[in-house]
Amino acid sequence: MLITATAVAVLAQTDSCSSQTSAASEADLVSMAGCSTFSGTLTISGPSITSITLNWASLTGTLKVASNRHLEVLSLEGLKSSTGTITLFNNTILSSVKMPNVTSLNVLEIITAPNLRKLSLPQIESVGTLKAEDTGFDNSGPVPWTDLRKAGHLGLSNNKALKSIEIPHLGSVSSHLVVSANGLMEGGGEGSALLASNLSTCSNCTFRHLTELDLSNLVSVGSALALAETNLKSVKMAKLKSVGQTLSIASNNQLANVTFPELGTIGGALQVANNSILTQIDGFPKLTEIGGVLDIRGAITNATWPAIKSVQGGLTVMSSTHFDCTTLANVKAGTRGKVQCQEMSKSAQPSSNRNGNSSDADSSAGSTSMHRGSALAALILLSGLALMF
């Protein structure tokens, strides 16, 4: 039986490849480029590689593209789904990643790609992990993944030119949503906007350096919610009903208003600390239970929790200005831990630990027993960021 070269090529395109191999040149990729399904491990790293084209329809293995100093284009145009891992690391002149037909990804990590201005995923609906760190994303293309509906971990960090992140149909994040240090160009830039108006559930949310935040349909946070070092003027989460662990709002120098009209329970600590111009805390009208410490610090003149019934971890209020501690009588009555309230304090700084319990050595020690600063406390509470990046 005669088999032509064309027939061999067609057969090759239907093969499943499962080898563990590496490629240092474009010629090394020929034998694997036509696989329909790749289930092995392929590491691509070579000084002369400028373009990579892989015609896979499915990836169940691992593709690692690392330290290719002349790589400009990665094309996976045939890829429709991946239950494997794609890692792009330290490809400094990479400017184009093509995956126009992929609908689901297990893991996609892009780290150190300063010339990659956009990541077009027009068909993407779900991701297990999507991380982009130190890229050139600049909103010149469809960085908003308009069809993305659910994610496990979604992390966007240190993308200095990225000023707006729009994910209009994202409904759930089952692990971490981390947005930090985007839009901070050297010599200017205040951060980025995060617009995820359809998001209803998130396990762990960590936000830093934001200029705008739209989570108008967020209903529940399974673990922690932290906002730190933002340029937000107000925070309103109109539908949020519960936070499983810590809610931390710290070191937001332009923040003047905080509103959580439907929030009923917080499983861990509630910390509102070192927000320079925030003087009134009256945006928690339905909050009944705090499982950890209630820790309030800053230039606070008034704070009310009209519905509070239980504070399990203690109460600490440290105000740098005049504050009438008697207005907290109902909160004190429901507090099972230590109670400390001071006005005109020189150390109105946060002191909650990772578990949401009070870390004050003694309530009579005054401000001298406080931790060294709000920045440290905020970093501790931003555990999602520390663990995932």
What's the structural blueprint in terms of helices and strands?
Blueprint: H1 5-14, E1 16-17, E2 20-23, H2 30-33, E3 37-38, E4 41-44, E5 51-53, E6 58-59, E7 62-66, E8 73-75, E9 81-89, E10 96-98, E11 104-113, E12 126-135, E13 150-157, E14 164-166, E15 172-180, E16 192-195, E17 201-208, E18 210-214, E19 220-221, E20 225-228, E21 234-236, E22 242-243, E23 247-250, E24 257-259, E25 265-266, E26 270-273, E27 280-281, E28 289-290, E29 294-298, E30 302-303, E31 310-311, E32 315-319, H3 329-333, E33 339-342, H4 374-381, H5 383-388
Parallel strand pairs: 1-3, 2-4, 3-6, 4-7, 5-8, 6-9, 7-9, 8-10, 9-11, 11-12, 12-13, 13-15, 14-16, 15-17, 16-18, 17-19, 17-20, 19-22, 20-23, 21-24, 22-25, 23-26, 25-28, 26-29, 27-30, 28-31, 29-32, 32-33
**Count of runs of 4 or more consecutive helical residues:** 5
User: For the report, how would you describe the main beta sheet?
Assistant: 23 strands, parallel
Unreliable residue runs? 1-14, 351-389
> Mean pLDDT, rounded to whole units?
87
Beta strand count: 33
Strand content: 35-45%
